[in-house]
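Hi R.,

Here's the chain you asked about this morning:
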Amino acid sequence: MIAVDTNVLVYAHREELPQHRAAHARVVALAGGTALWGIPVFCVTEFVRVVTHPRLFDPPYLAEEACRAMERLLEAPTVRVLHPGPTFVTRFGEAVREAGAVGNLVFDAQIVAVCREAGVTTLLTEDRDFARFRRFKTEGL
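And here is the predicted structure, written out as tokens:
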């Protein structure tokens, strides 16, 4: 299963960004395909945080716009929201130690942990920080 990181979701929804076309095409292909794919629950909430941030976008999405964009995406029959399960805390600790994660990298460690727990084979991301997690495959746009 492939999972989609926050940055790809943001790029797919913000037309003014240079990565928009590639990200939009990938997300549309996933949503319209037959294979299961996932979005870590942390990326759902971070997407709303990022696209509504007035220092990042002018104009930012309104809260209603951001929530509706995510709701539309989650209507795809093949998408799954990846939630922490019973082994999450252990996997999170392993990911933190593996990457020596501190500060902002701790957020990425929770994405790695929930993906590993869900059996994700690849994370679609433009964030190079994920390379610090051994045995965790990423793919760019």
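One quick note: The CA atoms of residues 12 and 54 lie 18 Å apart.

Cheers,
M.
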